[in-house]
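Our consortium's second objective concerns turning raw sequence data into structural hypotheses that experimental partners can test. To show how far this objective has progressed, the report includes one record in full. It was chosen at random from the queue rather than selected for favorable results. The single chain below, 264 residues long, was entered without modification.
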Amino acid sequence: VLPESVRWLLAQGRHDEAKAIITRVAAVNKVTLDPDVLDDFLLKGDQEKRVTHTPVDLLKTLDRAKVTLNIALVWFVNALVYYGLSFGTQALGGSFYLNFALMGLAEIPGQFLVLFVLDRIGRRKILFIFMAIGGLACVFAVLIPNDMQWLTVTLALLGKMEISTTFAVIYMVTSEIYPTVIRHVSLSFHSSIGRLGGLLAPQILLLETVYKPLPFIVIGLCSVTAGGLAMLLPETLGKPLSQTMSAFDTVINGRTTTVQNQEG
């Protein structure tokens, strides 16, 4: 029932379908479109040769590879920490069932919190701050003396809240960084990388046979590291979305976005 993305249709050269959707939206909003303006808008969506992009295009240049591998690491670590905390509740002491229920409830404030900070401090800072705080909370949670079990659970809940927040943001970051012509490919690619982190999480928990606090220390340090590297990603808050690969290359090369605006 949903209409296709107009920007994607333009990127694929399917102007008739894009024009039909724009015309329908204008009619619903009781807006009269100037035919010349509409034709000019459609023409600007046909600036680049139509090609089919694959995950290989995400790594074709050094700059693309840097961004792609960085985002892939953030996805991987987010899933690793999220599922590591979910599966590791038995290491917190006390009631396993209560801890598991609290871990689920901890996600709710994290999801609401992101609504208030997302457009205020920027995407990169959210990833850095929340992954760093969540990672440190995981490390300190298992170093608390046994007679302060309530504090251990509290810190673990803080870690789960923080990582659930960044897990929500990373979808948006990935979609905003990559251009329209490869956006769906990049999101699928990085989501798959994230699932590898989920697969590894139960194996990381086995490190408790070596040293009981080790699993939480490992996932905590991974979270802090990935959060720091996220600061190297381009900020997308308030920036126009790239439409073509050439505009994307301009953005990640650190040059002006004039070309992006023209090609978009």
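The partners drew two points from this record. The CA atoms of residues 234 and 252 lie 7 Å apart. Residues 1-46 form one domain. Both points have been shared with the crystallography group to help prioritize constructs.
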